[in-house]
Inverse folding.
């Protein structure tokens, strides 16, 4: 079962729906995702104990946020090139995308309310002592949009405070950028790794008769 949760990133329910998911209302996107998870869990279509989540870039921030808010709801989380140390990054106006990001998140340099609000939800700032699910942080060494140091810091913090026994892993593509390595076949291989991590975490490891690479 594969579900795409539309959490205010588009205009499915109008401009107001989009506007109430940014800046000082950004947390609505996190609670939307958790609400979608809860709906799926009670739908009868899935085993509530075998739900995984995936997201990249700003969606990687979403993964870190829901991991902090509701770690018990997920068996595994894949966060790709995740914007998990957003406050540190956006406070540096010398970085190429900081000024552009202020439109989405607000400007914590000039607005104290934005600073305090971002600090209350950014994943790195809010890792806590909890039993986290299996987590894979997937990043690229040459990513100039979300520097690899963000997931590196996040993973280390998770390992320090995780009270559970599930692994927290980091995978780094040494030649890739924000979109991963170049080349169609290499990208297929990277996506296959992500899905394999999820499938293994959910116990979906048995091949169908006749399945496999030819």
């Amino acid at each position: 079962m594969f579900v795409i949760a539309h959490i205010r990133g588009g205009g499915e329910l109008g401009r107001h729906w989009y506007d109430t998911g940014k800046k000082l209302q950004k947390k609505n996107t996190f609670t939307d995702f958790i609400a979608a998870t809860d709906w799926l869990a009670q739908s009868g279509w899935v085993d509530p104990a075998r739900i995984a989540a995936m997201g990249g870039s700003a969606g990687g921030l979403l993964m870190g946020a829901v991991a902090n808010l509701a770690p018990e709801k997920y068996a595994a989380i894949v966060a790709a090139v995740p914007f998990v140390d957003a406050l540190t990054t956006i406070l540096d106006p010398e970085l190429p995308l900081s000024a552009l990001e202020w439109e989405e998140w607000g400007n914590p340099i000039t607005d104290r309310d934005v600073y305090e609000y971002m600090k209350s939800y950014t994943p790195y700032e809010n890792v806590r002592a909890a039993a986290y699910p299996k987590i894979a942080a997937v990043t690229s060494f040459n990513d100039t949009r979300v520097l690899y140091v963000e997931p590196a810091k996040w993973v280390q913090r998770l390992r320090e405070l995780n009270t559970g026994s599930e692994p927290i892993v980091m995978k780094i593509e040494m030649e890739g950028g924000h979109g991963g390595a170049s080349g169609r076949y290499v990208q297929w291989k990277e996506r296959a790794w992500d899905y394999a991590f999820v499938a293994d975490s959910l116990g979906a490891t048995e091949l169908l008769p006749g399945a496999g690479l030819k």
Remarks:
- The first strand starts at residue 52 and ends at 56.
- The CA atoms of residues 76 and 134 lie 5 Å apart.
- The chain has a mean pLDDT of 90.
